[in-house]
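stuck on this one:
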Amino acid sequence: MKFLSYRAAGGVGVALDVQGEYLGLAEGDAAFPGAIDRLLRGGEAALRDAGEVLRKQGARIDPSAVEWLLPFNPGRIFCIGLNYADHARETGQAIPEQPTIFSRFGSSIVGPEAPIILPRVSSHLDFEAELAVVIGKPGRHIAIGDALDHVAGYSCFNDGSIRDYQLRTPQWTIGKNFDRSGSLGPALVTADALPAGASGLAIRTRLNGEEVQSSSTAELIFGVPRLIATLSEAVELQPGDVIATGTPSGVGLARKPPLWMKDGDVCEVEIEAIGTLRNVIRAEA
């Protein structure tokens, strides 16, 4: 199932994408199944029941008549660096023996079609297509063999990076957390609709229609189960937590000359069977 969140004249709602047709219910409707945030906390059964309600009672939605929102409000956002071998090579770094982990704040993320902001203090805004893993079942010290039981679904992620700030120090936090510099969406696709661990899916980025990244999630150095198991050694993962699994080669930083996103650019992150996350770049006022 593929869930989306939207805002229309009737308020905020949740929709189900059924082969390109959107069936939705707003929060004022009697049958409204609840926001996706709440459904994630309700587990697999809540998502399944919501899908059935939307399929049977949802009203057809004109996608051009609504504002698509973040599919859900992410909890903690754990990001993985250097998780594609080709990306490690293009940046001149060794293949890591352990996952490289950093975090993003919710304030750094916008939804589909919302502007990604180029800050006035930098011109080095880079694109990074990533598979986002959405946790649906809490857990600590999760075994690799059990890890996928904790996944509610997947989404697209653009780990927009302010490279000059990121590389000023060995710690990447500031360059990865400028307000509204990255994005998530457009949909939450439940795990049962995709291959195990979302492996083998084509992942690509287009900048102004030109393909600049192209790979497959089969190329991840550390797959979804390993990432979940490693993170859960430190923290109890919670519904709504997001793991952004890293980006393949082709980033702007590694090009000669570098390719930075600028005001007016359109960046699209597409993952097979999940969707296309589209954002326009806007310069900070």
Summary: The chain has a mean pLDDT of 97. DSSP finds four helices and 19 strands in the chain. Residues 132 and 244 are 5 Å apart (CA to CA).
